[in-house]
Design a protein that fits this description.
The chain has 259 residues and is of the alpha/beta class. It contains ten helices and ten strands.
Length: 259
């Protein structure tokens, strides 16, 4: 049985970043053979560190990022697919914003007259998977400024071989067609995935309300949900007997008074 202090710390600790979540996956010995990064921009090295031997499938339609991704391509078993990921194979118009990182298939929430529209190649992830024979299991990260569900529509076969999906999700409809949190959660449920963790996030400057959050989904009946217990029998007994419970509640609420 862990010490009182460690027991409380583990219950209260929430992960605050991609890196902390990846460290958590390492402790669970999850080692994907392919890491699919959709909307790479300058790269997501903390995620790539989950398995240094994994193949990195990097999908990024903004060619201005290519030079910044060269070091990753030299160091790792990786390939850069210079296309947008979406629901079909063909050509698609993308909005390119001045900062590049907020470019999207949807009208960006910060779109101005400086935002350009550019035609790029669009590929379904399923098409890339079948053509290049990526090895499962997969970790899939998508950050496409609101176009995540379009990407997932073209990734149904990929999802069959995916254990972890990391998405940036909005809590407000900041731009036309942008799905909100509940829509993403409901869609992922139809794909057989449920929420597993939340972290990061940004507040909107309008009123400091939470605007976006990173959400981790795992297969509802997958390896991460094989055991649905809250704790071991010993842990539950200790907690219910108030040995640790009152101290946990007092940490959460300094005004808490034990019965």
């Amino acid at each position: 049985m862990p010490s009182n202090e460690n027991f409380i710390a583990n219950i209260l600790k929430t992960r605050q970043s991609n890196r902390e979540f990846i460290d958590f996956l390492k402790k669970l010995n999850f080692s994907p053979r392919t890491i699919i990064d959709v909307g790479v921009a300058t790269g997501t090295p903390e995620i790539y560190g989950l398995n240094n031997e994994a193949f990195l499938a990097l999908i990024e339609p903004i060619v201005e990022f290519n030079a910044m991704l060269e070091p990753i391509l030299r160091r790792r078993n990786a390939h850069l697919y210079s296309c947008a990921a979406g629901a079909f194979d063909g050509q698609v118009e993308i909005w390119v914003t001045p900062d590049m990182t907020t470019s999207s298939l949807l009208v960006p929430m910060n779109a101005t007259e400086d935002a350009l529209r550019r035609n790029v190649t669009c590929c379904r992830l399923d098409t890339l998977y079948n053509k290049h024979e990526w090895l499962a299991p997969f970790l899939l990260k998508i950050d496409t400024q609101g176009a995540e569900l379009l990407v997932l529509e073209g990734a149904q076969e990929v999802l069959n071989h995916t254990e972890v999906v990391m998405l940036e999700v909005s809590l407000f409809p900041f731009s036309p067609g942008l799905p909100e949190f509940y829509e993403v959660v409901c869609y992922m449920k139809t794909c057989g995935f449920v929420v597993y963790d939340l972290f990061n996030g940004h507040n909107r400057p309008l009123d400091n309300a939470r605007g976006q959050v990173d959400v981790v989904f795992v297969k509802e009946n997958g390896i991460f949900r094989e055991d649905s217990r809250w704790g071991t029998e010993e842990q539950c007994q200790e907690f219910l007997q108030c040995k640790f419970r009152n101290e946990v509640y007092q940490k959460l609420n300094p005004h808490f008074s034990p019965d």
